[in-house]
Amino acid sequence: MNRLSLAATAAALAFVPMAAQAQNLAPAVVAVVDVDRIIQTCTVCAAANTQLQAQVTQLQQRAQALGQPLQTEEAAIRTAITALPQGQQPDAAMQTRIRNFQTSQQNAQTELQQGQERVQRNVQFVRQQIGQRIQPAIVTVMQQRGATIAVERGATLAINPSVDVTDAVLAIVNQNGAALNVNAPPPQQQPAATPPAQPQQPRPQGRPQGR
Fold it and tell me: Degrees (nearest 5) of the Cα angle 132, 136, 137?
C-alpha cells in the first residue's frame, strides 16, 4: 500500500508542473496600425475620398439652389400678409400661393434629406470596401513580423515606433489598384405587410319550402 501511495503521489506531483505550463500563454507580440491614415492616404482611398467630397459639394450647391427661391418667396408672402388691413384674411389666391410655397418647401426638405442619406451610405460603402482590403493586409504583415495581435493606433496612448506597421500595411493595400465604388446600392425596400385574410361570413340559407 505504501508503495502504491508513493507512486500515486509522485505521479500527481509530476503532473502539476505540466498542467501549470499548459495554462501559460506566450508573450504577446503587438503590431500597431494607423487605420485612419490608411483610409485617407492609400491611392484608391484618396481618389474615392475626392469623389465623395464632390458629392458633398454638389449636395450643398443643390441646397443653395433650392433655398434661394424659397427664401425670396417666403419674404414676399410675409410682406403681402403684413400689408393686409388689420383683421383681413388673405384672399383665395394668396392662400393658394401659401400652400404652394409650403409644398415646395417640404419637397426641398425631402430631396435634401434623401441626398444626405445617400452620401452617408456612399461613405459607409467606401469604408466597407477599404476594410476588406486592409484586413488581409494586416494579417499578412502580422505573419511577416511574427505579431500575435494587432491594435488600432487610435486605441493606444503611447507606442514605440518600432511596433508601428502602418507603412507595411499601406504598401500592401496600394498593390490593389482597382478603383473603389463610391455609389452604394440603394437600400432594400421592405415588402408591404399583407393584411390578414378576413373570415368569410356564412351565407344565410333560404327558408325550406313547405311540403
Answer: 105
Buried-exposed string 140-153: b where 16+ CB fall within 10 A, e elsewhere: ebbeeeebeebeee
43: left (phi over 0), alpha (psi -120 to 50) or beta: alpha
Contact 110, 138 (CB under 8 A): no
CA angle 40, 45, 47 (to 5 degrees): 110
Q: Supply the pLDDT for residue 21.
A: 53
Nearest to 166 by CA among 27, 31, 43: 31
Three-class secondary structure of residue 98 per DSSP: helix
pLDDT in tens, 60-109: 999 999 999 999 999 999 999 999 998 899 999 999 999 999 999 999 99
- pLDDT band of residue 23 (cuts 50, 70, 90) is low
Task: Give pTM, 2 decimals.
Answer: 0.72
| Grid cell digits, residue 131 | 476594410
